[in-house]
Amino acid sequence: MVHTIALAGISFGQNMVGIILRPYETYRRITREGTGWELVYIAGLLGLYFATATLIKNPSFRPFLLTRQFVVLASATGCTYCTVVGLMAAIGRLLKSQGKLRGLALGWAYSLFPTLVWFWITSLLYVLIPPPRTTSFLGIAFSIVYLLFSATILFWKIILSYLTVRFALRFDLKKIALTGAVVLPIMIVYSIGMYRLGIFRIPFL
After folding, report:
1. The pTM is what?
2. What are phi and psi of 132, to 5 degrees?
3. What is the pLDDT of residues 15-46, one digit of tens each?
4. Is 205 within the bounds of a domain?
5. Which of 74, 166, 198, 201 is 20 to 30 A from 99, comparing alpha carbons?
6. Domain assignment of residue 103, given as a range
């Protein structure tokens, strides 16, 4: 057991570097050779972020409120993850996918890393440069840099999402486009629901 977990940790570290430097080759390996234990490390990273975000949003130490906020964030993210994976798995069955659920679950879990980076940096900037930001030259320059950073992260996220469907479900471009056309509207409605419930202003996808 310990040996298996340790090997999964090594694979997780290699994959985290790989999805930055060599996403195509790395995703092919993740969806074919990845193990469920890697999800434990991804969940650990997400849990660390939720704990940090909870402390930032609730600086006063109130154990009940902190615990409640953490549980809400973690539960909502887990629900979102299962919803997306479930939708794509259902589409895969309808379109006669030859892929496996494990590869799909791992691929989408790794695609959460760009989202995690964006939220972590945004939370850090919230502490270092709290709003409101000015309309001075530095304020405008910061906004431009932040928008470029966000666009880069979004592009990275799109690439990893594409590779998840490409390798986990073994779809061609036509089926990938069809999958996106089905999943995207559903997730937009889902995200609006999360926003109205006050859980996420920006969905953790």
Report:
1. 0.88
2. -80, 145
3. 999 999 999 999 999 998 888 889 999 999 99
4. no
5. 74
6. 2-196
